[in-house]
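Q: How would the structure tokens look for this protein?
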Amino acid sequence: MPSTVPTSAPPPPSTTPSCTLFVGRLSHFTSNDSFRLAMTKYGRVKSLHLVRHIVTGTSHGYALVEYETEKEKRRAYK
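A: Here is the predicted structure in token form.
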């Protein structure tokens, strides 16, 4: 049976769910730099995605932060 997935499909994201933290209730004025600085207090940030409106560029008020280890994520969660 032929595969239904095209060969040019992008690879799955390289994020680790157990090391990823959802952060909500952020100010709409939050910048990537200030948020990254705040989150590095808890550990090494591997990636950070501050969700923004596609047209206006303003923050939607939430973000996803991926830490290097699960221990660092738990430290930020507390």
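The chain has one domain: 17-77.

The beta strands are 20-23, 45-52, 59-67.

Upvote if useful.
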